[in-house]
Amino acid sequence: MTCGVCFKPYNDPRILSCLHSFCLQCLHHEIEKSGSQQMFQCPICEQNTSIPVGGASVLPQNLHLGFEVEVAGYMSKMTSNSDVACDQCAEGSSDPAVVFCCACHHFLCAFCLEHHKRNRMWSKHKIVGLDQEGARQLHTTMKPRDHYCSQPNHEDNKLNFYCETCSLLVCLHCTTVTHKSHSVKEISTVAKTHQMEMTGALEDAKEVVTKLTGAIDENKRMIEQVEISKRNAFLAINQAFEILQQTLEERKKTLLSELEAISLSKTTALTLQKEQFEKMVGDIGHYTDMASQILQTHTDHEIVALGGLIPTELQATLMRVQTTSLTPNQHSNISVSVKTDDLVRQLSKLGEIIVFIPSPSSCTWMSTSVARVGTRYHVKVQSKTSKGEEYPHGGVEVKGEMRSKTHNGAVVYGEVEDHRDGTYTITLTPQTAGPHQLLITMDGQHVQNSPNDLDVRPKRDYHTLCNAQQVIQCNWPLCVAIHDNGDIYVGSGDHCIYVFDQTGQLKNTIGSSGSGDGQFSYPYGISIKGDVLYVADSGNHRVQKLTSSGKFLHKFGQQGSGQGQFNFPVAVIIDSNNKLIVSDYNNHRIQIFNENGGWLLTVDGKGSGNHSFQSPWGLALDPQGNIHVAAQGSNTIKVFTKEGVYVRMYGDPNGPRGLAIDGEGYSLVSENSGLCLSIYDPEGNKIHTVGNLKDPYGTALDPRDGSVFIANYGANTVLKYCVNI
Question: In the list 321, 386, 567, 569, which could disulfide-bond 586, CB 3.0-4.6 Å?
Answer without folding.
Answer: 567
